């Protein structure tokens, strides 16, 4: 097109997949935003999860290549996030770039240098081994037993690996070697079947089996088995949606007794009701579990606390690393502390409490356990590995949390082939028994107060008074004893952070 003798060249747009990849990468890295929900809802970026997974796992090598060829100095006008998205497509995607936009043409000019830099930096950036988790399937024992499940799988063309494993490691090795048409019964739980990763497509389509089986990760069964409610018992699931753990607890109870399943969020409550519909033992409660009283759930003996957490143990977050938001972890830990403490103090008949998260951060795990034990004398921490009764490899940190870490279980994706999961088991103390962490914490407080006895002569305003028996949420995540009156006076000039006060979905 000519206008007054001059040729006007239209700007060629960058293909939408490249633009979206650059946008989401910037949001995840620069803005520290969780992009998972946006990717799921973005109808114009349907392959977004695949593209972003590929981009995130290879980002360290891509950054090394850009630095090696000094691309940002040579091309200062080239958007750095766009450059990463295009290099990823060139090296780890289709191998070719689409279109003739300016960024695409720029990367094409450097293609030879980029490929050479890829080889030269490979030694310092080894390829990431992609974790292909098995497809775990739980038998709905309310309608089908193990033998019936085996017959059904045989009719469907699956071959059972009928082998006795003397130890956990030999079982894991065999799981990794499963052929496409093989499956196994789990080493720890005989209502769990293990299929190869390639079976995910089959189970996604197997609608005729939905009433007989649940698609549930093995790690999610660890908390329910450790709670171990007896038949005809009364159980409270404080953060129950979507309801998979609740339905498994009912199966362990042989569909006898009562299970109260609480959920605050309206949308998640609706999903919980769908799962609970086939189980008459489950009574759903739409409300905040911190406001659920003993009168509403009479006679509760067992409590599962599986609250909102960072979700850092979920496989999609492990494969797409996100920056650690310390402030968010701190607030989550405050909420988690409140929930476990509520379970310990609101229900006088409770015998056992299991606390679990799908997080791999100690702030939400061992540190919360440490906090509730220091401020609640009437519950003690059991050794979860002993309670499980079979070999398990991963526990918490005994160096950072002595006496606590080694009694808590972790499921590790790279070892257990599951999602990441943390589990702690509490049991009510005998009448004359006090847990050792509470006793030690009280000793430290008394010693601290004796060393600062002169503080007793200071005038303390009524508003500064603190009830020693009512620890704050901040205390739950502190390691050192404190003089509460001094600490409150400091806070008048330096207000405390808003820990756990913002409502979260759980």
From TrEMBL:
Pfam families registered for this protein in UniProt: Methyltr_RsmB-F, NSUN5_fdxn-like
Gene Ontology MF terms: RNA binding; RNA methyltransferase activity
SUPFAM superfamilies xrefs: S-adenosyl-L-methionine-dependent methyltransferases
Name of protein: SAM-dependent MTase RsmB/NOP-type domain-containing protein
Active-site annotation: 358 (nucleophile)
Organism (species): Anopheles atroparvus
Record has Methyltransferase as a keyword: yes
Residue ranges occupied by any SAM-dependent MTase RsmB/NOP-type domain in the UniProt entry: 125-429
PROSITE patterns: SAM_MT_RSMB_NOP
GO cellular component terms, A-Z: nucleolus
GO BP term, pick one: rRNA base methylation
